[in-house]
Amino acid sequence: MNKVDIPAIIVARLPIYLETLELMYKEGIYKTSSRELGDRIGITAAQIRKDLSQFGEFGKQGTGYSIPNLVAELRKILHVDKIWDVALVGTGNLGTAIARYPEFNHRGFRIVMCFDSDPALIGTKVGDITIEDSATMIERIREANIKIAMLTVPGSIAQQVADDLVKAGVTAILNYAPVALNMPPDIIHVQHIDPILQLQQMTYYMD
User: Fold this and answer.
1) What average pLDDT score do residues 126-130 get?
2) Which residues fall in the annotated binding site for NAD(+)?
3) Which of 6, 7, 80, 203 would bridge with 108, disulfide CB 3.0–4.6 Å?
4) Above 80 in pLDDT, residue 107?
5) Strand partners for 80
6) Distance CA 62, CA 132 (A)
């Protein structure tokens, strides 16, 4: 099946499966069933089997799944069986916290460049990374052939920065800015992260 034929909701569940399976492996569990996995994450066994069947056969009825094998297959499907270099644009409070988050390196990603337009921040460090001038961003990202960027800039400049990232050759943006980005979907994939939107979805179900 072609990538574009897989429903986005299924793709969104795959990292949850992967994270849970990796945790089970750390606990010393090497075999699991769709029911056991589902009980851990609140998804039915039937849904898990249906999701995984979109990508092939990974287990046998009655014997379940080999966790090491399924982890390896999911990492291949999600293309995190390698390390992706990532550029971070915006090093305020949120950007700095993200840059310092230790789990990226263990999950297939490595922040290698940070950019900001604030003269007070340019040249300072976030961890081991020196913050660079946003004016050099297009050239620097293009030279490094970085394809993924995280955007933590104010909403007022988010669209312009995103347009510059496309010029730099970026093809995926994780957008933390509080605005929707108008980007060509055939060129770039945008994932929008906004806690307010998530909270509003939750309150729909509350009295």
Assistant:
1) 93
2) 90-95
3) 80
4) yes
5) none
6) 55
C-beta neighbour count of 3 within 10 angstroms: 7
Segment 103-125 mean pLDDT: 95
The tokens for 37 are 């996995």
Counting the structural domains of the chain, the total is 2
Q: Do the domain assignments include residue 204?
A: no
Q: Give pairs for 136-141: CB < 8 Å, separation 24+.
A: 137/87, 137/89, 137/161, 137/164, 137/165, 137/168, 138/164, 138/167, 138/168, 139/168, 140/113, 140/115, 140/168, 141/87, 141/113, 141/165, 141/168, 141/169, 141/170
Q: Which domain holds residue 41?
A: 3-76
Nearest CA to 189 out of 147, 153, 156 is that of 147
Compute the distance between CA of residue 34 and CA of residue 25 in angstroms, rounded to an integer: 15
pTM for this model (two decimals): 0.88
Whether residue 2 has pLDDT greater than 60:
no
Q: Which residues are annotated as part of the binding site? A: 90-95
In a shared domain, residues 164 and 129:
yes
Instruction: Give residue-wise pLDDT tens across range 136-188.
Output: 999 999 999 999 999 999 999 999 999 999 999 999 999 999 999 999 888 89
Tokens of 124: 């300072």
Q: Which phi and psi (to 5°) does residue 12 adopt?
A: -65, -25
Give yes or no for a contact between 137 and 164, defined as CB atoms under 8 angstroms apart: yes
Burial of 167-205, coded b for 16+ CB within 10 Å and e otherwise, reads ebebeebbbbbebebebeeeebeeeeeeeeeeeeeeeee
